């Protein structure tokens, strides 16, 4: 439960508890806290059992930890019935990426050869300066409109 509390933090909590509750009341407070934690655990276990009974016999292997998405996915990936390992092993990402890059490079070489023959194929040449519109094409400036 307290896996991430270090020794210094534990000593600090004990000293703080002694200062807040005092050495006389501290044992009673500890008993009350442990009793409350025990009741909460009993309540949660009874709630889990009630839910399992209501779900019926088809959910007898149901665990509430499976509701955590990470646990569910890990459990499903370990399941051999699904055949996910065969699918994963049959999929070669490097080969697929090589095929895609080859297709893209062949398309680029095809379009560059067609663009050198005169057809631009919808591509924009970024080395050219854009054409500036003539001054006569602009609408007149209206100072009152702004």
TrEMBL record:
Any one GO BP annotation for this protein: protein transport by the Tat complex
Bilayer disposition of the protein: Single-pass membrane protein
Gene3D superfamilies, A to Z: 1.20.5.3310
Coiled coil ranges: none
Entry GO terms, CC: TAT protein transport complex
Pfam family, one: TatA_B_E
Compositionally biased region (Basic and acidic residues): 99-110, 125-146
This protein's record includes keyword Cell membrane: yes
Complexes and interactors: The Tat system comprises two distinct complexes: a TatABC complex, containing multiple copies of TatA, TatB and TatC subunits, and a separate TatA complex, containing only TatA subunits. Substrates initially bind to the TatABC complex, which probably triggers association of the separate TatA complex to form the active translocon.
Family: Belongs to the TatB family.
Name under which the protein is recorded: Sec-independent protein translocase protein TatB
Gene behind this protein: tatB
């Amino acid at each position: 439960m307290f896996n991430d509390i270090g020794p210094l933090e534990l000593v600090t909590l004990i000293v703080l508890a002694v200062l807040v509750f005092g050495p006389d009341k501290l044992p009673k407070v500890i008993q009350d806290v442990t009793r409350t934690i025990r009741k909460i655990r009993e309540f949660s276990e009874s709630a889990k059992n009630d839910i399992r009974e209501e779900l019926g016999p088809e959910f007898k292997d149901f665990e509430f930890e499976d509701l955590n998405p990470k646990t569910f996915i890990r459990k499903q990936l370990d399941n051999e019935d699904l055949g996910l390992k065969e699918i994963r092993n049959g999929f070669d990402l490097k080969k697929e990426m090589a095929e895609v890059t080859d297709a893209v490079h062949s398309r680029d070489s095809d379009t560059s050869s067609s663009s050198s023959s005169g057809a631009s194929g919808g591509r924009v040449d970024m080395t050219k300066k854009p054409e500036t519109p003539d001054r006569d094409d602009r609408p007149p400036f209206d100072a009152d409109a702004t």
